[in-house]
Amino acid sequence: MASTQVEKKPEFAYQNHDSTLDKIIAFRKVKLGEDLTKIHHWMNQPHVIPFWNLGLELDKMQAHLERAIADTHQTLYIGYLDGVPMSYWESYWTKDDILANCYQPHPEDQGIHLLIGETDYLGKGYALPLLKAMTAFQLQHLPTQKIVAEPDIRNQKMIHVFEGCGFEFQRKITLPDKQAALMFCSRDRFMERWES
After folding, report:
1. Taking burial as the number of CB atoms within 10 A of a residue's CB, which of 84, 114, 145, 196 is the most buried?
2. Domain covering 14-194, topology
3. Buried b (16+ CB within 10 A) or exposed e, 75-111
4. Which residue in 51, 32, 66, 48 sits closest to 117, CA to CA?
């Protein structure tokens, strides 16, 4: 995970140069006034709707995001590639999530939800470096020893990306809105794979 140091802009919670892409990956917290129409547009894309089920009208999306931002068990982020906002992320504490009913969470376990919203960025190999960056960002919280994911079991492309990052399939689980693949990535496994 050796990388070139870049000057971190204050609005970004995380920023790093990815040597495989030769691009800057960054994340900043969602700001409702700035991001509502962008997230609404992304959630209504054909490649997103089947897996997120949030193809809502704008006013309903606003209400959904207001609730999500106020929910202290998660933090919402916009992901950037070379300064362009192109992805949406949710980082959450699994102990306070519905997922806690599916396994025995450690109090410091974190989970990830993500989507690439801009269609120009699909199919170009960006998902794995972005996921690697978000996982590295979450592991900056030193007590966290495990990152958890639960992609839709139908989303084989995303499951493959998680596996490429170091996540290991545990079992199929049933959540209120989907059948999902429960996947774990330990800190040790991630560091062994990406530290160099």
Report:
1. 114
2. Aminopeptidase (3.40.630)
3. bbbbbbbeeebbbbbbbbbbbebebbebbebeeebbb
4. 48
Taking the whole predicted model, whether its pTM rises above 0.70 is answered as yes
pLDDT in tens, 152-180: 999 999 999 999 999 999 999 999 989 99
Q: β-pairing, 178-186 with 168-175?
A: antiparallel
Residues with Cβ within 8 Å of 21's Cβ and at least 6 positions away in sequence, in order, are 81, 125, 126, 129
